Amino acid sequence: MTKTQETELMEMAKRRGFIWPSFEIYGGAAGFYDFGPLGSAMKNNIIKKWRDIYVCGEGFLEIDSPTLTPHEVLKASGHVDHFTDAMVECKKCGSAFKATDLIKDKTGQDVEGLGKEKMQEVIKQDGIRCPDCAGEFGEVFDFNAMFKTAIGPGSKRVGYLRPETAQGIFIDFKRLFRHARGKLPMGVVQIGKGYRNEISPRQGMIRLREFTMAEAEVFFDPEDPKHPKFSDVAHDHLNLWLSKDQIAGNEKLTEVVAETAVDKKTICNEIMAYYLALTQRFLLGIGIPPAAIRFREQNPRQRAHYSSETWDAEILTERFGWVEVTGLAYRSDYDLVSHAKASGEDLSAFIEEKKKKVVCHVIEPSYGIDRPFYCVLEHSYTTDGKRKILKLKKDLAPVKVGVFPLLNKDGLPEKAIEVEKALKADCLAAEYDASGTVGRRYSRADEIGTPYCVTVDHQTLQDLTVTIRDRDSTKQVRVEVHELPCILKSLLRDEIPFEKAGKPI
Ligand SMILES: [Zn+2]
Q1: Gap from CA of 97 to ligand 1 centroid (Å)
Q2: Residues lying with their CB under 5 A of ligand 1, a single-atom ion
Q3: What's the 137 CA to ligand 1 centre distance in angstroms?
Q4: Whether 415 and 281 share a structural domain
Q5: Which residue has the higher pLDDT, 56 or 6?
Q6: How far apart are the CA of 135 and the centre of ligand 1, in A?
Q7: pTM for the structure as a whole
Q8: Which CATH number does the domain housing residue 43 bear?
Q9: What was the pLDDT predicted at 353?
Q10: Which end of the chain has less neighbouring CB within 10 Å, N or C?
Q11: What H or E segment, with its residue span, contains residue 108?
C-alpha cells in the first residue's frame, strides 16, 4: 500500500461511514472514534466471528458486567497502584507527554519499563525540551491511566471506568465455577468497552482512550496445564519473535509448530500454545495474511504487573508498522489470590474427580477489536487499474448484496425494490442503489467491499431472471429470481464456485 492509497483509504472510511473522529462538530477529542453505519456493521461482524470461535466453538461462558467499577476491586487487582504511565510536563506551557513516547521520538531509544529515574536521566542527558515551546521539563512522575469518578452523590465512593473487562470475570469466579459444574479448564469471556486515559494519543485508531475488548480467561489446575483439544492445533505453524532476539536487536523470527514450542518450553504450556494458535486462526479468518502475523514474547520489563509470561500477537501494517492486537498473558493465580485476600471470600476451586482444592491459574487471551478493525481495512484495500476494491472476507462485509435497476424507468426500479425486500426478509444485508449509472454503482459497491451485486434489467420483466456480479472477478451469471436468496447464501458461505451459481454471461 502506498502513501496515496493510505490517504485514500482513510478518506473513504470517513466518507462512506466506516469511522470518523468523535465529537467532530465541537472540534473533536483525541483518542475517540465513532463507527458509522458501515463501520458498526463490520465491527459487529468481527465480534461475531470472535464469538463463534470462543463461545460457540470452545464453549466459553459469556458474561456482561458493569464498565464502572468500585475502587476496592481495582485496588485489589493492582490497577490503582500499577496501571500508570510515566509522564512529564513542560514547566513553561504545561503540555503533557508520555515519557516513553517523548524519548522514542527524540532519541529513538526504547525506555519502556526502565523506571522513572532512567527516563529522567535520558531527558536530562539528551537535553530534551518541550516540542511545543522548547521549555524545560519537570520531574518524570506516574500518571494513573484510569478515568476516575464518584459513584452516587458526593465523592465518598470512588469508582473508575474499567481498564479491562477481566476483573468482572475474576470477581464472579465462585458463581461461574458453580455454573460450569466444577469442571476445569473453565473458559469465560466478556466483550465490551475498556478505558485508558492516554496522556497524548496520536496514532488514530491505534491509541484510543475508549475501546472495545474481547477478553477470555482460561482457569485451570496449575498441576495440569494440558489442553483437551491440543492435538487440533499441534501442527499449526507459529512465527515467534523471541525475547532473546529482541534483546540482541535482531528482527529474526523463529518458525515453530505449536507442539515443538511446548516440548522445547519456548511456550510455557499446552494451554498457552493452544490460544496462540487459536488467535492466529482468528486473525487469518478476518483476512490478515500469514506473513503479516507474528507473536512477540514480552521481556520481563515490558510485562504487566500481573503477568509471568506474555505473548503479543502483532499485525504488520503499512501506516503504523507492527501493531499489537492481542495479548496472551499467563496471569497465574495473581487475581484470584488478590481478590480472595481483599474480599475475604474463598476463591479456591474444589475439583471433585481429583478430590482436591486448588487456586486456579489463569491464561488470558485479550483481544482489542478496534485495532484489528483498522488492520483489516488496510489489508483489504487494493486497486486494480482504476478500480478501488475493499477485498473484505465475505462474512465481514457490512453490505452483502447491492441491488440495482439497470435503468430508472420501465418498471425496473419497482422490480428491484421488490428483490431487495425479499433479500432483506431472508436476513441478507441488501442495499438498493439507483443513483448514477450502473458502472458507478458497481464502483461504489466495490469500494465498501460488497461481495455481490444483483441487477434487474429488461429481461427480468420477461423471464424473471437477474444478473449477479462477483466483486473480485467482476464476472457475471444470470439466475432465477426465486432462487436468488438461496444462491447468494451458498455463495456467501463459499459452498459453490461463482461460475456454477448460474448461467455465465
Ligand atoms: Zn512547553
Answers
A1: 10
A2: 90, 92-93, 95, 130, 132-133, 135
A3: 8
A4: no
A5: 56
A6: 5
A7: 0.95
A8: 3.30.930.10
A9: 87
A10: C
A11: none
